[in-house]
Amino acid sequence: MTIEFRQPRPEEEAPLRALFTEAFGDGGFTDLFFRTGYAPARCLTAFDGALLAALHWFDCSLEGQKAAYIYGIAAFKRCRGRGVGSALIRAALEELEKRGYEAIFLVPAETSLFGYYERFGFRAVSTIRELTLSATAPLPLKKLTTGEYAAARKKLLPAHSLLQEGPCLALLSGYADFYATDRAVAAVSGDMVWELLGEISDAPGLIAALGLPTATVRTPGPGRPFAMALGTDGPIYLGLALD
Length: 243
Prior knowledge:
single chain; 12 strands; alpha+beta
């Protein structure tokens, strides 16, 4: 049977959920994603009578350009090794081009996948700086709503940043809390600071205010390869991998 690439229909959400859970585990994350991040209009599926694979994307912008952040690429285990995932990615790139997306981003889940995505024309354009820091004297800390965090981070993003708002931050808010010091904002889950923007020297005081002895902090800067892109060159800051 010929594989059909198309947007999912309302009655097909159940197999999409099953695929997402098989690929990424559950622990409530499937429900969170389909409540906050999923939209049929931002999903492309592969069918041959039954669901084989799917990918999703978030709408973003890059200095006024319409951009997409591809997310949640997955194929059922029973379908792997048949080239379905690669065909789906190619179909998605064609679809995104038709819809007028000028730049397309993704964040490989593993270092080994950078070479895989290069086959589709993606190039590494972004790094992330990861630091393990210890608490010092606590700083005054304010908890932010998702909207407050969106507004504050927009002001603090470095030049040449991918702007991620809306469903991106709604999904992140399902497993992270947002905080501000006088000079920085941060998205924090447990002992992981998924993003810190602003004055990095505030990080130890923020960690202390949260009652943590140490934390891993992600912040803009030179470090490990992080994001890849089509349609634009780096360096670009993409800070929220939603991983």
